[in-house]
Write a structure and sequence with these properties.
With 450 residues, this protein is of the alpha+beta class. The protein folds into 4 domains: 93 residues, Beta Barrel (Barwin-like endoglucanases), CATH 2.40.40; 100 residues, Rossmann fold; 82 residues, Dna Ligase, domain 1 (2-Layer Sandwich); 112 residues, D-amino Acid Aminotransferase, Chain A, domain 1. The protein is 26% helix and 33% strand. The strands form 5 sheets. Strands 2-4-3-7-6-1-5 form a 7-stranded mixed sheet. A 6-stranded antiparallel sheet has the order 14-19-15-16-17-18, with helices on both faces. Strands 20, 21, 22, 23, 24 and 25 form a 6-stranded antiparallel sheet that branches. The longest helix has 25 residues. The mean pLDDT is 90. It comes from Bacillus taeanensis. This is YheC/YheD family protein. InterPro entries: YheC/D. It holds the Pfam family ATPgrasp_YheCD.
Length: 450
């Protein structure tokens, strides 16, 4: 099997004796020891019989518009890879990587806060000779997908080949669990199309999975699935501060901090625009108020940690871990997130601000201790990623590990995110952040495109 980076150029049918002729640069023709005869070419799930001829072009693989259309390739010059199997006389065009997502009506950010991240992924793929596009389930066909490509500084739609690998970024748990999405994933499995980050995780299953690993238990806050008032009573007897979190929550929404003080209970609520009493004289009155928020949702009660503060504001750490081009977990990046004033959650969606880990730790610890704590945070995030990947059903290639430390420097796990948020990149330098490259590298690995 031979593989080479090429530029594929569709030309009018009149430029060929037959629309199923393709022309390769003479140097490549000779290198692969080709002859005028019948071959087959594949792109996605489309395959056609072709004749292959040498070309005067030094760089372009020339195909007819008819062939490009039947392979569902855009009618423009594309930077891709071409493979040739000498034993079967088959060519294949690729790799093709796609993102399953949802579209919005905002023309400036058609894919919400992930729009700039997708643009970076697209630019990375152009450099790497990969066909990259976004799609939603509304535009899926058995033979092609109506997808969106980043071209000429805008997103444009066209028919595109079925991808070799799919990155799942459906943002809604409800949509992801719908019959249409599950049917699509089932179809992918039947067609052997790999997809990753195929589901959201919930906080309780993550906690239960990690409890099995003795080396990780010192970093897990005590947690309890809230089922009855006795659970609340038990946790408040042990701790002066606890958190109540929806097990399927995200973006720091609907989290309650409950603090005990002189027999009374004060409550802070993280969701904007929702009124909630903040003082209760008894656990019974607190429980009745909580039931109005919890309703039929499942909540977790979690030990409150005396968080490290930076400039008098609570702080946590988001460590992003990705599988690389060999399918191995690596730390991609790490940042400190500092909560907005008067808030106790540091999620960017809740007004949190990003700082470097070193800057935050240096406010309290000396240089040697900063290095030691940072190293432990990164090692812990990496180990948690490996263990969750082992224990959870589905394929994962990316985790956002949320950790914090207490005033003594002891790390604690807060949450594991299988769909980590991406900040909007306002940098005009056209840089591509490491996390975008990491996702592409793992998708290439999954594609198995030679």
């Amino acid at each position: 099997m031979s593989t080479i980076k090429v530029h594929i150029q569709p030309l009018s049918d009149e430029a060929f004796q037959h629309p199923y002729h393709i022309r390769l640069p003479l140097k490549l023709w000779q290198q692969w020891n080709l002859r005028p005869r019948e071959y087959r070419i594949k792109c996605g799930f489309q395959e056609r019989a072709i004749d292959c001829l040498p070309s005067k072009s030094k760089e372009m693989v020339e195909i007819s518009c008819t062939l490009a259309n039947e392979l569902h390739l855009p009618n423009e010059t594309l930077a891709l890879h071409l493979t040739f199997d000498h034993t079967t006389n088959h060519f294949e065009i690729g790799p093709i990587i796609a993102v399953l997502t949802t579209m919005k009506t905002d023309l400036d950010e058609p894919f919400g806060t992930l729009t700039s991240f997708y643009q970076e992924m697209a630019r990375c793929c152009m450099k790497e000779h990969i066909l990259f596009y976004l799609f939603s389930l509304k535009h899926v066909n058995n033979e092609f997908i109506y997808g969106y490509r980043w071209q000429h500084h805008k997103w444009g739609a066209s028919q595109l080949p079925i991808p070799h690998a799919i990155y799942n970024r459906i943002h809604s748990r409800k949509l992801e669990s719908s019959s249409s999405v599950q049917a699509f994933f089932q179809n992918c499995e039947e067609k052997e199309i790999p997809y990753f980050n195929n589901r959201f995780l919930n906080k309780w299953e993550v906690h239960q999975a990690l409890l099995m690993y003795e080396e990780l238990t010192p970093y897990l806050p005590e947690s309890l699935l809230y089922e009855k008032i006795g659970d609340l009573e038990n946790m408040m007897k042990k701790y002066n501060s606890i958190f109540a979190k929806p097990i399927n929550g995200s973006l720091g929404k609907r989290i309650l901090r409950i603090q005990k003080n002189n027999g009374c209970y004060s409550v802070d609520y993280s969701s904007n625009g929702h009124e909630f009493p903040n003082e209760f004289q008894s656990l019974h009155s607190l429980k009745n108020a909580l039931s109005q928020i919890i309703k039929k949702r499942h909540f977790l009660l979690q030990q409150g940690i005396p968080l490290l503060h930076f400039r008098k504001r609570p702080v946590d750490f988001r460590i992003l871990c990705n599988k690389n081009q060999l399918g191995e977990w690596k730390v991609t990046s790490g940042v400190a997130r500092v909560s907005q004033e008067q808030k106790f959650v540091s999620n960017i969606a809740q007004g949190g601000e990003i700082y470097s880990i070193n800057e935050v730790l240096s406010e309290k610890f000396n240089d040697q201790t900063v290095k030691s704590i940072k190293r432990l945070l990164l090692e812990l995030a990496l180990e948690i990623s490996k263990r969750i990947d082992q224990e959870m059903t589905g394929s994962f290639g990316e985790f956002g590990i949320d950790l914090t430390i207490d005033e003594s420097g002891q790390p604690w796990l807060l949450e594991v995110n299988s769909k980590p948020s991406k900040t909007t990149n306002d940098d005009q330098s056209m840089t591509i952040r490491p996390s975008a490259k990491a996702v592409i590298n793992f998708a290439k690995f999954l594609s198995q495109f030679s």
